[in-house]
């Protein structure tokens, strides 16, 4: 568990540094709205605060949601911290602030890294590690969070291995293909993509399919590559995943009829295997 301990020590140090730094100024209008929100003492418990935060968020009351979630987050509730992290990362009801998002995700990773992979909170903790990996990949401008591909790869590695998170496996595969944060390892990338693809991760299915079809990461397996591309195309969002559709059409256009027919047989087999 040396890697885990190293990760957590680094995250703890960053959290301490950020806690000592002056708070970032909020937009005056939003700051006033937050000040006028429901007082914290109305919450009977952490669970009550979380329930209230989710209810307010779904009702469109983002100000009330933030206050309730902040209360739960201060009590150590991982899901409340995760939701606040996503809200700050997306600018959803609060001023967009990647540093605040990073801080919330760091607290989750720092305090919940040993969460059982089978627990109800496992997905929340895993996605926090994935978010941290993405921040370390690019860094956060004008903050102490600098681009650090090695640390990013470590974050993805932990979420991919301990939690089996498909997003982490996909990101880890891309870094292994490109040689970011470590040596290039196409064979290992194929392994990660296959694990994520079997879980229905559409982007992994598409990338795995293309690599198998083209032979860029080893021996060519055209029919199996077309199978994964077909499955990815069928589940892809046409607007968000346009690259998947283009990749599918390109490789299918280059394929021989025998490979296309074999791919359809593989698709049928793969579909039958699904629960």
UniProtKB/TrEMBL annotation:
Signal peptide location: 1-25
Domain of life: Bacteria
SUPFAM superfamilies referenced in this protein's UniProt entry, alphabetically: HCP-like
Gene3D superfamilies the UniProt entry points to: Tetratricopeptide repeat domain
Pfam families: Sel1
Keyword Transferase (UniProt): no
Keywords: Signal
Entries under PANTHER family matching the protein: ERAD-ASSOCIATED E3 UBIQUITIN-PROTEIN LIGASE COMPONENT HRD3 (PTHR11102:SF160), SEL-1-LIKE PROTEIN (PTHR11102)
Name under which the protein is recorded: Exopolysaccharide biosynthesis protein
Organism: Alsobacter soli
């Amino acid at each position: 568990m040396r890697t885990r301990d190293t990760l957590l020590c680094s995250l703890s140090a960053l959290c301490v540094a950020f806690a000592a730094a002056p708070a970032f100024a909020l937009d005056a209008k939003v700051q006033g709205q937050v000040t006028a929100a429901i007082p914290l003492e109305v919450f009977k418990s952490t669970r009550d605060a979380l329930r209230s935060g989710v209810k307010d968020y779904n009702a469109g009351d983002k100000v009330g949601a933030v206050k309730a979630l902040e209360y739960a987050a201060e009590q150590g509730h991982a899901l409340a911290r995760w939701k606040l992290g996503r809200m700050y990362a997306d600018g959803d009801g609060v001023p967009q602030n990647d540093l605040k998002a990073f801080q919330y995700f760091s607290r989750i990773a720092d305090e919940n890294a040993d969460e059982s992979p089978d627990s109800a909170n496992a997905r929340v903790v895993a996605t926090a590690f994935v978010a941290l990996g993405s921040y370390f990949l690019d860094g956060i401008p004008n903050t102490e969070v600098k681009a650090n591909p090695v640390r990013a790869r470590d974050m993805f590695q932990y979420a991919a291995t301990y939690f089996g998170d498909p997003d982490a496996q996909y990101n880890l595969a891309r870094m292994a293909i490109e040689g970011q944060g470590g040596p290039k390892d196409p064979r290992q990338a194929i392994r990660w993509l296959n694990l994520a693809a079997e879980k229905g991760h559409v982007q992994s299915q598409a990338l795995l399919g293309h690599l198998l079809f083209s032979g860029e990461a080893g021996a060519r397996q055209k029919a199996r590559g077309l199978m994964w591309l077909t499955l990815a195309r069928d589940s892809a969002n046409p607007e968000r995943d346009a690259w998947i559709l283009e990749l599918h059409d390109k490789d299918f256009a280059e394929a021989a009829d025998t490979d296309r027919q074999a791919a359809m047989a593989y698709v049928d087999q793969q579909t039958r295997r699904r629960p």
